[in-house]
Amino acid sequence: MGYFSNSLSSMVPMIFSSRMDYCCVWINDFDPLIPRIFGHIGDSNLHICAGTGSADDLAAIFARMMAVVGEYQGSISAEHGIGVLKRKYLLHSRTKEEIALMHRLKDTLDPKGILNSGRVI
């Protein structure tokens, strides 16, 4: 399948301009790109389904989307967790210090590592 679905968030004032950037970046970089974007502005979340129809393009489209999110100081995940697929993109929306703090909190709350073992934090 050559499409993916993703949830992310953006600062409320940026949500409209970033929505346009997402479309423009993808349309210019991937042909033909079919983006479907919807969301709920009250909590700044966007849900994006996009693809060219070719599974070969998915990794590049996803990586480009994560970079644009970072440029707009958004989050690579909306109401969902980071998950395994977004792990390598976490630095687009969190600093090294924030990630280190997440690790310390996880170690404090789950010293035996039994909760969600092997995941992001």
What is the fold's blueprint, element by element?
Layout lengths: L2 E7 L5 H15 L4 E7 L4 E7 L6 H14 L24 H14 L12
Antiparallel strand pairs: 1-3, 2-3
Helix pairs in contact: 1-2
Notable traits:
alpha+beta; about 120 residues; 3 helices; three-stranded antiparallel β-sheet; single chain; 3 strands
Mean pLDDT: 76
Q: What's the multimeric state?
A: single chain
Number of helices: 3
Biggest sheet, spatial arrangement of strands: 1-3-2
Helical percent range? 25-40%
Order of helices and strands: EHEEHH
What profile does the largest beta sheet have? 3 strands, antiparallel
Q: Beta-strand percentage?
A: 15-25%
Care to describe what's here?
The chain is of the alpha+beta class. Helices cover 36% and strands 17% of the residues. It contains three helices and three strands. Strands 1-3-2 form a three-stranded antiparallel β-sheet, covered by helices on one side. Helix 1 (15-29) packs antiparallel against helix 2 (58-71). It starts with a strand and ends in a 12-residue tail after the last helix. The mean pLDDT is 76.
